[in-house]
Amino acid sequence: MPQVNRPERLGGWTRFVTARPRLALLAALVITALAVFAGSGVADRMGSGGWEAPDAESTYATKALEREFPASQPNLLLLVDSGSTSVDDPAVAAEAARLTEELAAEKGITGVGSYWQSESPALRAKDGREALIAARIEGQDKAVGETLDRIAPTYRGTHGPVKVSVGGPVAVRHEMQTIIQEDLLRAEMIALPVTLVLLVMVFGSAIAALLPLGVGIVAILGTNAVLRGITEFTDVSVFAQNLTTALGLGLAIDYALFIVRRFREELAAGADTRSAVGATLRTAGRTVLFSALTVAVSLAAMLVFPQYFLRSFAYAGIAVVLLAAAAALILLPAALMLLGPRVNSLDLRRRLGRRGSEARHEPDTAGKGWGRFATLVMRRAPVFAVLTTVGLVLLGLPFLGVKFGTADDRQLPAGAESHVVQQHIRDGFPGSPGGGLEVFAEGSATPAQYADYRNRIAALPGVLRVDGPVTEGRSAYFGVLPKGEAVGEESQQLVRELRAQPAPFDTSVTGAAAVLIDSKDAIADRLPWAVGVIVLVTLLLVFLLTGSVLIPLQAVVLNALSLTAMFGAVVWVFQDGHLSGLLSFTSTGDIETTLPVLMFCVAFGLSMDYGVFLLSRIKEEYDRTGDHEHSVTFGLRRTGGLITAAAVILAVVMVAIGTSRVTNTKMLGLGIALAVLMDAMVVRSLLVPSVMKLMGRVTWWAPAPLRAFHQRFGLSEGGSAPAPVEEVSAAAPDRDRISAGA
Q1: pLDDT, tens digit, 9 for 90 and up, residues 296-327
Q2: Considering only CA atoms, which of 232, 172, 151 is closest in space to residue 48?
Q3: Distance in angstroms (rounded) separating the CA atoms of residues 110 and 107
Q4: Which of 671, 674, 651 is nearest to 663 (CA)?
Q5: Nearest to 325 by CA among 366, 297, 359
């Protein structure tokens, strides 16, 4: 039989958050002010790398070479352009020698070398008009950046007969970090006013529209303070700040939308302020809690990966999700207690007459269209289910051709100085600049043994040239230039052959292709654990919400389907280069290895966010009536517009992030915006109701022991257990009564 809701009562949590609302808001203001102070300067303490696996062979070899042979690992390059004169001209050579000596005398600089010292053909352009001075800046990211800022103005520009440009990995990372900070500020300036306008359109009331923004700002500022603290103990990627802004605004708005909308519904139904807050926390509040847990779990899965780039997004994501939920469940109810019916004040849609009045006093009126739409979808459930599934699968097919690579200077805008320098090197210098491999050798060896090893690796089919060995005590290194592209399949195969090559001493291989192989191996090794954590915890949380064993499985599968368009678009646009002119980026022909993992975890969590919102209202109505089809229609009617509005607002925030001039950030923002819109407008609107219609009441099935477990430990909006599938109602629900109660 349909379950009857428990009598409304104020629980301990409601009493706690509403007893002293002014004190709660004052405390929040003080804490936020402290967070502003604590989080100041956090970006300056963040790194712009983190793609390497710290325990990989390539990482070990890189650190060993930095320690033993700093000249083998230059991170600063000065591109010397002699104009129409040859770099071998005496005046050019003299000026280059002066610059080289001056650079070698700089504090924090080691391993300085140049074409004019070594006469290495790899340091001279093929047309003879450009050559390189190479050096290494010592220290961690912050110290390296400070050194670069100090010396770059001295060397950049015209010096007699030559013009000097600054490049190299350290310049690329530093310029990327600077651009990300500038772009993030611009994204916030775009997203905040647009979001406010959209919220006013959704709520009508300017007061109601400001509440979600307040929650988002608290979450963002609090997360910056948390990240500032984490940087004291471990590395954090500067890219994580983009996620902080996006999720801080997006999720805070989602949660606040859900809570404020439910509060206004309760007021419109005649409840007083305290009772409305209590009902809101008992229903929407529980949904927000479940949603926050599911999103946090999806993001926490990135902690299993060794790369600090991915771990940084877990730190930022978990912090901002929990802070957004805390603000929505503590500060927002306190604000609603003080506002009461004034939450509808400053109605900016009054000029629309009755439409504005309805939006204010009858919040479910606009949902009638969604109810009719749900009825249409369920009437043709097989057609909608099949066509939608096939369409989503087809959109994801380009991902089958994905090629993984490493991030380089081409992430930057075409006009960025370090990108220009690296492009000149790529186009004009011999071999595969930036794609060279190094073999680090440890242990005693004779010159004959070194020579024999050198000859054997030089004979490998993928080798263009071998330099070295350069020896120092019991260590040595060989420079190996591959024939193929820096991180192409041929270069990756060469890494495997070098690692398999027997030697009378211990060897370890590094270089761009080696880093890529180790990164892919680390991700492949940990990916099953990450996916397992996400799936298992999601299944558990959705079961606790619904009491069904089939709905959690359905939620996981449909969420995965909602991501296909995002992954297909990532390959079609960013790997294959379609729309590169329109979106202003340089295609590298591959996708950075960690990006799909990051996008999966974030997008899956956000999909579950919307899934929980919809399922909670369906479950609440099913507990009340026991009518499966009506409950699905009711759930979509009550949440369809809300989820769509939330998705559009979050997409606006992500698109603002996607305006970044750094390709990875652009890919992250635009890709997740697409996933969010596809989930809200296709999966939640078409696939969920059609699949639930096809499954019928068996949707709510659970074995008796699990039903008992859920009745004891489960939480749901209705606060009641579901009607067991085995029970058949003696009479159909009174539809008129149900409609009136809605």
Answers
A1: 988 999 999 998 889 998 998 899 899 988 88
A2: 172
A3: 9
A4: 671
A5: 297
